[in-house]
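Aim 2 progress. For cysteine desulfurase, the working sequence is reproduced below.
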Amino acid sequence: MEIYFDNSATTRPYDEVASAVFDTMSNNYGNPSSLHKLGIEAERAVKTAKERVAAGIKANPSEILFTSGGTESDNIALFGTASANRGRHIISTPLEHPAIINTLGELRERGYKIDYTPVDSSGKVILKDFERLIRPDTFLVTAMIVNNEIGTIEPIAEMAKILKSVNPRAVFHTDAVQGFGKVPINVDALGVDLVSLSAHKVHGPKGMGALYIRRGTKIKPIIYGGGQQQGMRSGTENVPGMVGFGIAAKIATTDLGKKIERMSALKERLKNGILNSIDNVRINTPDNNAPHILNVSFGGTKAEVVLHSLEMQDIFVSSGSACSSHKKEPSYVLTEIGVPRKMIDGSIRFSLSEFSTEEDVDITIEALKKIIPRLRKLNLK
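Predicted structure tokens for this construct:
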């Protein structure tokens, strides 16, 4: 029996998605730019996919730009906004995904000033400190909705409101890759201008993403060519991927409230089971966080050893963000919120999905009850 608790890294595609992608590749293979029947059918499929993704975040389909994934969406948001605006100042948080952190690093190399707003011990932005950072030349703020390592939900609506009250022309971008399909997202309620999404985090195909661009937002393309997607992203459209993303978005956001409640209950069951049966444990995930992420430090262990010990029992977890798990440096997210280095070394991220079950949780707890004491004894030798 396979237990998959690494859904923040990627998800198993819905059966409906896999079938639709295969069917589109086999039968709807026309180029959406072609004027004949097959092209028109492909164009229709793209239109339907945009409508479904847009509905998931309460946006207009004309404001959806399909991309190759969350990383490209983030790059378009940052580089495209920088190219279209005169300002030189950007504000972000120190807990962002590497797709943001490293892109900001490149912008700094190009002469832009980057400030990182302080966060508290739960990873949440301190709003008063954020407001103090806003300057007349601040043209962009970028902050994720849900942190991919610890599950903190950032006060995006409050941040956007503060930004617009101080500097109405500034653009607010949020990386919603970990939030989409896990927390409700309404672009108007949030007050944001740009939103990055990824298909494979919501049981869709890999290599597919989207960027919501509010109408009127000043942004330029970073890819040039045949002028597809209103000139914002040239290149022949990945119709099967778009179709798959559209179906995944529709399923993932249907009955979202019930899915959130169920995942939250399973996460609490896992957390309490760990706390009640294993000592020297630190829960790094704050209260009132995303429903699917639980980050736990097991003192006296090495995360990689715990991970592989669980893997031997067909339980799959992560030792941190999948996009940086091969690096030897300690997690910058856990470091920023004050987790001691020794506890960081033993941190494991469990990330659930709508497919997770109570049986999965209970089996994992029983496995940890045997694995952790055994590994601690080995470390003492």
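The radius of gyration is 21 Å. This observation will guide construct design in the next reporting period.
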